[in-house]
Specification:
Blueprint (H helix, E strand, L loop, with lengths): L6 H7 L13 E6 L12 H7 L4 H7 L5 E7 L7 E6 L6 E6 L11 H5 L5 E2 L2 E2 L1 E3 L2 E5 L6 H18 L4 E4 L11 E4 L3 E3 L7 H10 L7 E3 L10 H18 L7 E10 L2 E8 L4 E10 L15 E7 L9
Parallel strand pairs: 1-2, 8-9
Antiparallel strand pairs: 1-3, 2-9, 3-4, 4-7, 5-6, 8-10, 10-11, 11-12, 13-14, 14-15, 15-16
Helix pairs in contact: 2-3, 5-6
């Protein structure tokens, strides 16, 4: 099938479901760098930097963290070396900041302190906890949709949240869903974002709410050790359950269990703040062929069908 649409235009045209399109990662490392040694943010910026060059040992150290994800960040005119660590678990999501004197300091990050839910330390000094951060993918050399759609969103987020809390980032994943972004500390990933959405995202994030109609998923649900398929099923179910029970406060719904009940079928159960169970069955099917990236040949992609199940009035099932 030939198409004149960009991958993002096609995704929007077919009304692709966003929830369930995020890979599991609950520890994020955000490193400020334009990567001049590597010719800038190329197609696979993080992968290239982890393979060779001066950043390679630093990234290998960071990637030793379980379920870790590295992103490079930047903004115009900044010549600093800002570094953030986000721990996006269900109970106590946090994000920490440090300004590095040299990138070699990354080798001094105590990875063990992350697993122990302690304040991260670099070379013995504690990082500083902050309240919020927003990162928008503008990695146009990975896919032109990211730059074309992400850059206007970046500028509108600046107006809503302020320069110190907004960054451009390398590829988040799912560029056909551009503009795509992450709201920290919860690690909430949004897709199909337009500049007009920025105010609602920031306002809701600060009030402890999420936007389910733009929701792709969250950082891995710590403690559940979910593989990619189960994690995506959990995120797909969450959006549907939240819409059904009109529960948009981030902390009012908690993942309780994910069980594979068939080859491509999962039962996902969430608990609300009152302890009531909200189960759903999630099955995986394949879509009609479409672009995953601009210029790629169309191919079928995973899609999730979510069916809500009945549950007792309270307690676990």
């Amino acid at each position: 099938m030939q198409t004149t649409m960009t991958c993002a235009e096609e995704s929007r045209a077919v009304k692709e479901t966003l929830a369930g399109t995020v890979k599991p990662a609950d520890t994020f490392f955000l490193i400020e760098s334009s990567l001049p040694e590597y010719g800038g943010w190329g197609d696979g910026a993080v992968k290239a930097a982890a393979t060779s060059g001066s950043f390679a040992p630093h990234l290998r150290h960071l990637q030793s963290a379980p379920r870790g994800k590295v992103l490079f960040i930047r903004r115009p005119q900044s010549q600093e070396k800002n570094f953030y660590v986000a721990l996006t678990n269900q109970d106590t999501p946090r994000i920490y900041h440090a300004e590095l004197a040299d990138y070699d300091e990354l080798l001094g990050l105590d990875i063990a302190s992350l697993a122990a839910s302690m304040t991260p330390k670099i070379n013995g000094r504690e990082m500083t906890e902050i309240g919020e951060l927003y990162t928008v993918c503008t990695n146009g050399r990975h896919d032109p949709c990211c730059a074309a759609l992400g850059t206007p969103v970046y500028h509108e987020l600046l107006a809503q949240a302020g320069q110190e809390r907004v960054w451009k980032t390398t590829h988040i994943g799912g560029h056909r869903l551009a503009a795509t972004m992450i709201a920290f500390p919860h690690g909430i990933v949004y897709g199909h974002i337009d500049p007009a959405d920025a105010e609602a995202i920031v306002t809701n994030q600060r009030a402890g709410f999420m936007l389910t109609h733009k929701y792709r998923g969250r950082g891995a649900y710590a403690g559940h050790q979910l593989d990619e398929a189960a994690h995506k099923a959990a995120c797909a179910a969450e959006a549907v359950i939240r819409e059904r029970i009109r529960s948009y406060r981030i902390d009012d719904l908690r993942l309780d269990a994910v069980d594979q009940t068939g080859g491509d079928v999962w039962t996902v159960r969430y608990l609300d703040a009152a302890g009531r169970a909200h189960p759903a069955e999630v099955s995986i099917k394949m879509s009609a062929p479409r672009q995953t990236s601009c210029g790629d040949a169309p191919k079928p992609m995973l899609q999730h069908d979510v069916s809500l199940l009945s549950a007792p009035s309270c307690g676990k099932i």
